[in-house]
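FAQ: What does the model actually see?

It sees only this:
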Amino acid sequence: MSEQSRRDLAQLLLPVIRWNADRGFTEARALIDQALQLGVGGFLLAGGEQDGVRALAKELQLKSRHPLLLAAELERGAGQQFAGATGLPPLAAITAMGDIEALRRAARLTAREARTMGVNWNLAPVCDLDLLAENPLIGTRAMGNDARKVAQLVQAWIEATQAEGVMACAKHFPGVGRATRDPHREAVSVDTPADQLKELDLHPFRAAISGGVASVMTAHVAYPALDSSRAPATLSREMLQWLLRQQLKFDNLIVADVMTLPGVCEGRAVADACVQALRGGCDVLLAPGDLDTTLDALEQALDDGTLDPERVKQSVRRRLKWAQWVSPPNDWRRPSGADTAWGALLADKVLRIEQGPIPPMAGVTEVALVDDDDDVEGRRPDRTGIVEAMRLAGNDARIVSAPTTASAGPFVIALFADYLPNKGRCTLREDTVAAVRALAAQAEAMHRQVVLVGLGDPRWVQQLAMAVPTVIAWNGDRVMQQAAGRGLLRKR
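And it is asked to produce this:
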């Protein structure tokens, strides 16, 4: 096996660089040095502060032997990952406004902020249809459940993103809207008939492809109607080379979702899953496990004929083509003051009031936080955004564990509950429901009106079936917490 072959294979790997709130990127240094030495094709960036990310991206590109793909998941604006950048509402909230220009503008703002940090690949948009309340993954990440309407919105989002010199990514092919289990936790299968999948679920992906999308991300989900071997799409030649390449005529980059997830590596080593993903038709692999172990397995597969050398060369060429496409000099438009001001106001515009109106708040507002997501692993924003926004507006807002005599005004219950990776359920915990009902009963016993704030997909707060004024804030990101706080004080 030649040194060049190992370097070619390394270009198909994109390890994750995670930011730590206390130590920044320090803990990732050894991985960064190893990855650059091996000649990886890029990195997936998770977290960081705007200036630090910009400096890191510049350093990575300078030290690499070839142009890099620097990817991040920015479905909800660059602020979803990077502190100091603009956070935006989830796609479902924006599309619920019925304003396609707002969607285009959100995509443009996200891309412009990403480019100024050196991030050249946004792993968005979600093209999955929001078909089932039992789906533990999609929720407000989707643009809706109408395949034709979603197709139009997907195309608008992709075109606006790529016009700013940032690659978009249609995910998760061929659509995970019908999954009722979470591939972050286990192997998952969707048993829907092929004609139904092709008629509906694939429709947004067809639109993405006709819109020139740079990349498609595969689902770690099996579809027996599309591949009787029951291999997840990420490992399926039938779905990637026959359906996506041949039938849908997609010739750009196919990227495998994070390769360490149980949905793709349950029952097999991560390195073996990586071999099968490249053999199946993926071009590049996110988070491919230990780099040396995976490269050794890929080299062995190339040696013994498991991997076709010509297929590997095609993937190397595709990766390089797109890395060159996103790496011209910095003559792209930076976000203007008007862009960021518009982005800051968008969260306020998407708030929805149900069973209203919202009663006027008192000078002292008591807010109780009930967190249905506190048992879910992963990085989540702190829960103080509502009271901070209210204090900034002059209200003496306080986080309390129960209503007190300090206020006679409305009692606010903020429910954090959403569809999240690793959560694995679609219903509120019994203790969550009991906590909300107990707080409401205490407030009512003190003759205080109750106001609910739903910080997540609207379906979660609706599970409470409480006939009280409710603010739908779509998710628990800081930007939506702060919008909810302002919304409670808005004069109507």
